[in-house]
Amino acid sequence: MKLRPMTLLSVVVGALICGAALAGHSEAKKLRESGVILPLEKILEKAKQTHSGQVAETELERAGDRYIYIIRIVGDNGVVRDLKYDAQSGEPIREK
User: Fold this and answer.
1) Are strands 66-74 and 80-86 parallel, antiparallel or unpaired?
2) Which of 2, 23, 40, 94 to pair with 83, CA 20 to 30 A apart?
3) What's the pLDDT band for 95 if we cut at 50, 70, 90?
4) What are phi and psi of 4, to 5 degrees?
5) Torsion angle (degrees, nearest 10) of CA 48, 61, 88, 78
6) Quick check: helix, strand or coil at residue 84?
7) Which fold has domain 37-96?
8) DSSP state string for 32-72
9) What is the C-alpha to C-alpha distance for residues 1 and 62, in angstroms, rounded to an integer?
């Protein structure tokens, strides 16, 4: 079976993305253990104080020299909100 170049490229990119996700988890653990970022649990407590609903997804992103937690909440009314918090200070950044 011969793979087309675009198919092969898709497979390679997919593998790289999966590898990056695994590296991201281990990096987040190291950052949390070294005190660079707050534990996700503390950020979730803050989010739940101001927004009711179910947490659908969480993510840790790097933006320049700072880390940001993104929390996607599906509200009791069905509205989806993306909440952003500074991962070091725990302060909210913005809401969509």
Assistant:
1) antiparallel
2) 23
3) low
4) -75, 155
5) -10
6) strand
7) Nuclear Transport Factor 2; Chain: A, (3.10.450)
8) HHTTSS--HHHHHHHHHHH--SEEEEEEEEEETTEEEEEEE
9) 40
Task: Please tell me whether residue 78 adopts helix, strand or coil conformation.
Answer: coil
Q: In this structure, what token pair is assigned to residue 93?
A: 């950044």
Q: What tokens appear for 51 in the block?
A: 């927004």
Of 42 and 18, the structure prediction assigns the larger pLDDT to 42
46-93: pLDDT as tens digits: 999 999 999 999 999 998 889 999 999 999 899 999 999 999 999 999
- If one compares 85 and 28, the residue with the highest pLDDT of the two is 85
- C-alpha–C-alpha distance, residues 28 and 35, integer Å: 11
Q: 5 by DSSP, 3-state: which?
A: helix
Residue ranges covered by each domain of the chain: 1-36, 37-96
